[in-house]
Amino acid sequence: MQFEPPTKQADVTVNIADGDNSNQGVDSNGIVTGRWKTGLFGFTDSIVPNGVMSCCCPGLVVAQISARLGLMPFYHVLGIFGGLYLLAIISVSTHSGFFDFLFWLCAVISALCMMRLRWRIRTLFSIPGSHAQDAAFSFCCGCCSVAQMASHVESYEPGTFAFAPRATLPGYSLS
Fold first, then answer.
1. How many Å from the N-terminal Cα to the C-terminal Cα in the chain?
2. Strands, E, within the chain: which ranges?
3. Is there a domain that residue 66 lies in?
4. Domain-embedded: residue 74
């Protein structure tokens, strides 16, 4: 038996309305709803800039995501994460128990912010999941989680390092 790939486009159909996936689709802005656009390790599809930026500058990517969805102004988020990173750097450079505590506090606050953003994205786009999953992904694989969120809301231009936010998408509200 030999595998024969489909020869015309009509031979390939994927039904996304099966079972509990009936709420899948795209919204008016072209953003996927009902599921994540990529998997947790989907940043490998777009290493530049998504994978690199999410690992090297996660605060910047979180600011771009927040601005893209209109959740918080870009420079406010950038200032918050910049302050946390500055405090963490100062804490690491000193050898004090108090500053060690501050370092871990900054790390936990950063992860909590990413967890909250992930929860809001899941709510906005009707993506199934739980708070426990959001916490686990944010604390254990924060860079991957940030990259997944950035891919989902299309907060970057593939192949281009951009440090400014993309345009805010219209029409999202949280109740």
1. 55
2. 25-26, 32-33
3. yes
4. yes
Note down the domain range covering 56.
46-153
pTM: 0.81
Flag whether 70 is in a domain.
yes
Give the residue from 139, 159, 165 showing the smallest Cα distance to 45: 159
Task: Please say whether the beta carbons of 91 and 103 come within 8 A.
Answer: yes
148 found inside a domain:
yes
Q: How far is CA 129 from the centre of its chain?
A: 14
Count how many domains the chain has. 1
Q: Are 143 and 162 in contact (CB under 8 A)?
A: no
- How confident is the prediction along the chain (175 residues), in pLDDT tens digits per residue? 554 555 555 444 444 444 444 457 899 889 999 999 999 998 888 898 999 999 999 999 999 999 999 999 999 999 999 999 999 899 889 888 998 898 899 999 999 999 999 999 999 999 999 999 999 999 999 999 999 999 999 999 988 888 999 998 887 655 4
User: Which amino acid, residue 84?
Assistant: L
Three-class SS of residue 32? strand
Give Cα separations from 139 to 28, 99, 125, 130 (angstroms): 32, 21, 22, 14
